[in-house]
Amino acid sequence: MIELTGVHKSFGTLEVLRGIDLTVRPGTVTVILGPSGSGKSTLLRCVNHLEKVDRGLVRVDGELIGYRRSGNRLHELSERQILRQRARIGFVFQNFNLFPHLTAVENVAEAPISALRKPRIETYERAHALLARVGLADKADAYPRQLSGGQQQRVAIARALALEPRLILFDEPTSALDPELVGEVLDVLRDLATAGTTMIVVTHEIGFAREAADTVIFMDEGRIVEQGPPAQVLDHPRHDRTQAFLSKVLI
Ligand SMILES: Nc1ncnc2c1ncn2[C@@H]1O[C@H](COP(=O)(O)OP(=O)(O)OP(=O)(O)O)[C@@H](O)[C@H]1O
Ligand SMILES: [Mg+2]
C-alpha cells in the first residue's frame, strides 16, 4: 500500500505539488495523466525521496519514506537508509538509463550484487530469467548500444524487477520510443499488471490506461483534479480540464 497525504513541493517560488492525497492498493495499476508541467514526474520522484517533500507524508507499506518519526518530530534518514528504502522501489525512466559499459544481463544483475550483496551465480541465473520474461533471452550479452530503444527499455524493466520491488514507478516509459517499438514495451507492462505488480505509470498512452489501469488520475497544476476507474475518467470525465486534456490526446 502506498499512501501520500498532503504532499506539497515547491521549487523556489514555483509550487509544483499543491496538496496531493493518493492511495495505491497493492497489486493495482495507477496511471497518471496530465499536461506538461503539471507535476507528474515530481510526484513520482517524491515517492522514492529523489525529491524531498516540503510538507506531507509518503508511506509505503506503512513505512515512512525518507524520514523517521521520534515523538512529534520527523528526522530525515541517513543516505544509506534512504538508499535501502529506494532499493525496494523500482524506477523506470523515459531514457532507460542503462549502464553503457555493461551488457544487458550485467545491467540487470548489477544492483542486486552491489547494493543487496546477493550471491553472484543465483543473481545471474535470475537476471537471465528476467530477460527471458521481457522477451530478451537472446540479448543477454548485448551492450545497450547494440539494442533498439524498445529492447533497452525492456532491459531497464528487467533491471527494476531484479530488486524484487514493492512497487515500480514508470515515468513515460514509451515516450522516447519510435511508434513501432511502443507496443513491445506496453506488452511487458500489461504482463506485469496481470501478474499483480504494483505500478504507478505516467504515460500518454490512453489505450494502455483503458485496458490495464485500475485507477486513472488526472493531474493539473500540482493537484489531482480527478481520479477513478478508466471507464469513468476517460469516458465520462467530470471536470472541464480533464475533458479538454483528453480531447487533445484522444485524436
Ligand atoms: N529540479 C527542479 N528545479 C526547478 N524546477 C523544477 C525542477 N523539477 C521540476 N521543476 C518544475 O516543476 C514543474 C513540474 O515539473 P514536472 O517535471 O513534475 O512536470 P511533468 O508533469 O512531469 O511534465 P512533463 O509532462 O513535461 O514531463 C515544471 O514547471 C518544472 O519546470
Ligand atoms: Mg515528466
Descriptive notes:
The protein is of the alpha/beta class and 251 residues long. The protein has 2 domains: 2-88 and 167-249, Rossmann fold; 100-165, no CATH class. 37% of the residues lie in helices and 27% in strands. The protein has 9 helices and 12 strands. Strands 8-9-10-3-11-12 form a 6-stranded mixed β-sheet, with helices on both faces. A 4-stranded antiparallel β-sheet has the order 2-1-4-5, covered by helices on one side. A hairpin with a 2-residue loop joins strand 4 and strand 5. Helix 4 crosses helix 5. The longest helix is centred in the C-terminal third of the chain and has 16 residues, at 179-194. The two termini are 35 Å apart. Bound molecules: adenosine-5'-triphosphate (ATP) and magnesium ion. Magnesium ion is lined by residues 40-41, 171.
Please state the CA-atom Rg, rounded to the nearest Å.
18 Å
Largest sheet: 6 strands, mixed
Total strands: the figure is 12
Q: Residue ranges: pLDDT <50 for 5 or more in a row?
A: none
**Any idea how many domains?**
2
End-to-end Cα distance: 35 Å
Q: What is CATH's topology name of the largest domain?
A: Rossmann fold
What is the number of helical segments per DSSP (H or I, 4+ residues)?
Answer: 9
Shape descriptor reads: globular
Secondary-structure element order, N to C: EEEHEEEEHEHHHEHEHEEHH
**Overall pLDDT:** 94
CATH architectural group of the largest domain: 3-Layer(aba) Sandwich
Helix vs. strand class: alpha/beta
